[in-house]
Design brief:
The chain has four domains: 30-49 and 291-363, Beta Barrel (conserved putative lor/sdh protein from methanococcus maripaludis s2 fold), CATH 2.40.420.20; 53-61 and 210-289, Efflux pump adaptor protein, beta barrel domain (Elongation Factor Tu (Ef-tu), domain 3, Beta Barrel), CATH 2.40.30; 63-96 and 173-208, RNA polymerase II/Efflux pump adaptor protein, barrel-sandwich hybrid domain (OB fold (Dihydrolipoamide Acetyltransferase, E2P)); 97-171, Helix Hairpins, CATH 1.10.287. The protein has four helices and 22 strands. It has helices spanning 2-22, 97-130, 139-171, 222-225, and strands spanning 40-42, 44-45, 50-60, 63-66, 72-77, 84-85, 90-95, 174-176, 181-186, 193-194, 206-209, 213-221, 233-238, 246-253, 263-271, 282-289, 296-299, 303-305, 310-316, 319-331, 334-339, 346-348. The strands form five sheets. A six-stranded antiparallel sheet has the order 2-17-21-20-19-18, with no helix packed on it. Strands 3-12-15-14-13-16 form a six-stranded antiparallel β-barrel. A four-stranded antiparallel sheet has the order 4-11-9-6, with no helix packed on it. Strand 20 (319-331) and strand 21 form a beta hairpin. The radius of gyration is 43 Å and the shape is elongated. Residues 1-31 have low confidence and may be disordered.
Length: 363
Amino acid sequence: MKYISMLLFFAAVVTGMVACHSTAAPEYKKTAPAGRTLTLGKTVEQSLPGNIRLPGVLEPFQKVSIFPRVNGFIKSISVDRGSHVRKGQVLLVLEAPEIAQQYYAAQSRYLQAKAGYAASKDNYERTLAVSAEPGTISAHDLELARARMLGDSALMNSELANFRAREVMLGYLTVTAPFDGVITERNVHPGALVGPDTKADSKPMLMLEQEDKLRLVLQVPEMYSGQLLRSAAVTFGVNALPGKEFQGTISRQAGTLNDKYRSEAVEIDVQNNNQQLKAGMYAEISLPLNGTASALVVPSSAVVTSTEKKYVIAVRDHKTKWIDVQEGNHHNDSTEIFGALRPGDNVVLDATDEIKDGITAPR
């Protein structure tokens, strides 16, 4: 009996345990944070014009390193660092006696060939006139006179080409400015021996830069390169002149992206007649953008930024759903977004990370 009583006792205990575990626990119902009402709005498909601030650097509109084209000695130099020059102005003169002698020798050979051609031409014309009388001049003699004239003509043209080449070489001894600008570097003095050495580590005789007009060069990130307004007016400031604002226009775009930085080079022409700006200055540019036509626009408060991602909280079938997005332009309190959304989708306007994914949204 005692053994049977113990079996009945253990059976009762097991039955009680099974009964306790078979009772379903109440399911946790996820809802919005207590005491909070979700404010919903709809996404709108439209472009959102805006501005972006990017760094840039001012460069001369034209810049040239002046190297000698022939070997020679510096005879005279009429400019120095900081000299303002005009196009065609003589900057320096080289001295190379052998080039002058070659020029005069080529001139002499040309004049000699020219005289020989004139004589052979006159002889041919006379022979041709006499041959009009039958039996006076043989056809062979006439052909020889014509051949000599053509040969002397070719020799004259050859000597003329050589003479012109020597004339150009002589002109290289006088170095002139290719455009209006300022001499920013001078590395030679009278008596120095120079030559046409354009190696990477060689210094030019002079450096000439155009400073009354500058190029403002900046790199526009890939996501904004398609939104630039062609010929748009831009404003910018420079660190060296705080509080001052300057204007320019978008003049050129590279049309291709830099493989390393995934950006497009853009140039802005800047008039600098008063010489306030200097080449090499860093600038901060406010660049106008025309927005993306396929973008969806929501209030900025609808975008949640966490340490891992950016997202908006959409409401679908009365449930919240986190949708990863990328931001585009910003204007006032509106933001362009790109993600798995459609125009007219409901999103939480006052979104925070306290509103979890998958909760029941109050109706």
